[in-house]
Amino acid sequence: MVVNSRDYQRSVFLSSSNSVVSGMYEWSNSVVEFFKLRAANENLAEENTALKNQIIDLRNKLSTLQKDGDDSLHFRIPPEMEYKFISAKVISSSTNRLQNYITINKGKADGVNIDMGVISDEGVVGIVKNVSNRFAVVIPILNPKIEICKFKRNNYTGSLLWSGEDYRYSNLTDIARHVELSLGDTLITSGLTSTFPEGIPVGNIEDFRIKESDAYYKIKVKLAVNFRTLSHVKIINYLNYKEQRNLELNSEEQ
Question: Rounded to two decimals, what is the model's pTM?
């Protein structure tokens, strides 16, 4: 009755109501925009992967363009450079265990298989361990020894060994004392396995030490990937994996 009969009270009431309703609309729009943003991020990840595949294909063709005797042009891409990426989303992960795991939303139906390498835009993530039809479990480099990296400047290779303490750092082993090191040196994938092509970032040297009696350095590496914020990854589909692996297994049996 007061609101309906008095102009001032009516104006105050309407103003307050509008303020409340506007706040509710703003909150509602924020929620809607949040879910739209997540979908947009997933679409961007898929588009980024498609563009990356196109870039790799063009780069390989340009770097291997050759002339035949009749002056015609042909592409002769080395088999180790023939790979594609499969985009995936992280749906579960851990960083506080000695043996951590990451679950992604792509599986056999999407072309994902065991032993495929997994990377992000920042660098190396890990290796596919188990696969179902629609999901896959990845062993990240926050796990026991993975021999995948080398120094970018001198090609010396080593093994990563995570201590189980800090998800941001790992230890590089098997680097002899005669190797020249500097703080900030970049570590990349060696390309000596069929899991990762050469040149993908692994991390940078944070600290290194060696005693007079030691034959090998103790090296602390800051990893390129932040596993706490990891949301989208790319699985490396090395197209000649089966052929190479079968050949290696047959050689071991002989």
Answer: 0.72
Output the 3-class SS for the chain.
CHHHHCHHHHHHHHHHHHHHHHHHHHHHHHHHHHHHHHHHHHHHHHHHHHHHHHHHHHHHHHHCEEECCCCCEEECCCHHHCEEEEEEEEEEECCCCCCCCEEECCCHHHCCCCCCEEECCCCEEEEEEEECCCCEEEEECCCCCEEEEEECCCCCEEEEECCCCCCCEEEEECCECCCCCCCCCEEEECCCCCCCCCCCEEEEEEEEECCCCCCECEEEEEECCCCCCCCEEEEEEECCHHHHHHHHHHHHHC
pLDDT digits (tens, 9 = 90+) for 49-96: 767 666 666 666 666 565 555 555 556 667 777 888 999 999 999 888
- Do the domain assignments include residue 251? no
Domain boundary among the residues 43, 61, 79 is at: 61
Structural domain of residue 215, as residue ranges?
A: 146-223
Q: How many domains does the chain have?
A: 2
pLDDT over 70 percentage in the chain: 68
- Reading the block at residue 148, the tokens are 């995948």
Q: Which CATH number fits the domain that encloses residue 158? A: 2.40.10.350
**Do the bridges between strand 157-161 and strand 169-173 make them parallel or antiparallel, or are there none, so unpaired?**
antiparallel
pLDDT digits (tens, 9 = 90+) for 22-46: 445 445 555 544 444 565 566 666 6
Let me know if residue 166 belongs to a domain: yes
